[in-house]
Amino acid sequence: MIIESILAVFTTIVEMFRSGGVITYIITLIGIYGILISIQKIRYLKGMNKRSITEIMDIVNSSMERGGAINALKEIATVKNPVAKIISEALKIGYKNKTEVEEGMEQVFIVELSKMTDGLNTLKTIVEIAPFLGLIGTVIGIWMTFKSLGVQTNPVVMAEGIYIALITTIAGLAVAIILLPTHTYIKNLIDQEMDKIELANKMTNWGYGLAKLKVEENVSCAIEALQDADGIVNTKPLTNDSANIQVSFKPSMLEKSLNNIILEKCNTKSEIIESILRQ
């Protein structure tokens, strides 16, 4: 009984599709295209939502304890979502100045936003245009029905013509009814990701940084250059083999990268061995 009912509904739909004409075919094609866009967007957005910002920040903080910012960058490199990429740029403070880091974060945001919203306007257009295409098909169908009848009135022929004309409206409304909730759902997924990005920006507003540097030569000049630079809180020499200067700095006030500060004043190369950032 159930199978017979399903077959009857399927047969009716096929018959309506055949009777609807060219506009019904057009509506069906754009409807299928809209469904394909929806599936692709949902898969992409659901894939990037597998790791929460709390999980990512836990990875960053634990990695920071073990090996500093470089280790944290390596750990979250496998997390392929916009939040992880924003945080990765924020971890580069010290290696870059605050302006370069902010520009890097903004660039990542623009690229990821473009990826998330790609196809969304097309889907919205399909939702809006499908009912109108159906309405045009109905108007054309009714006009052709009356034109073919002429001055003669045949209720049976007229009813059949109007029935066929209304098929396009049904098709257009069906496409809109299916794709409108899908569009809303996709937009909600994007809004959730945007909220995470905004939270990531706040959570990576580092309040304090500690770096260990290896300077090739003229350590005293390097220390003096760092002490005179904006954003540097404190410097002190170290006596171990891996690094010879320790620097405390405020990331939000760092106008130049640590390496550039030393290079510009002392004309000597330096390397950041370890950088630890705190909120």
**Number of helical stretches of at least 4 residues:** 9
User: For the report, how would you describe the main beta sheet?
Assistant: 4 strands, antiparallel
Given as residue ranges, the uncertain stretches (5+ residues, pLDDT < 50) are none
Amount of helix: over 70%
- Number of discrete domains: 2
Structural class: alpha+beta
What strand order characterises the main sheet?
2-3-1-4
Structure summary:
This protein is an alpha+beta fold and 279 residues long.
Explain this structure to me?
A four-stranded antiparallel β-sheet has the order 2-3-1-4. By secondary structure, the chain is α+β, with helices and mostly antiparallel strands. It folds into two domains: 205 residues, no CATH class; 71 residues, Alpha-Beta Plaits (2-Layer Sandwich). The protein has nine helices and four strands, in the order H-H-H-H-H-H-H-E-H-E-E-H-E. 31% of the residues are buried. The model has no long low-confidence stretch (mean pLDDT 83). The longest helix is centred in the middle third of the chain and has 49 residues. Helix content is 71%, strand content 10%.
Strand-helix topology:
Elements lengths: L1 H19 L1 H27 L4 H24 L5 H9 L7 H20 L2 H30 L5 H49 L4 E8 L3 H10 L3 E6 L7 E5 L8 H9 L3 E9 L1
Antiparallel strand pairs: 1-3, 1-4, 2-3
Helix pairs in contact: 1-7, 2-6, 2-7, 3-4, 4-5, 4-7, 5-7, 6-7, 8-9
Question: What labels describe this entry?
Answer:
single chain; alpha+beta; Alpha-Beta Plaits; 4-stranded antiparallel sheet; 9 helices
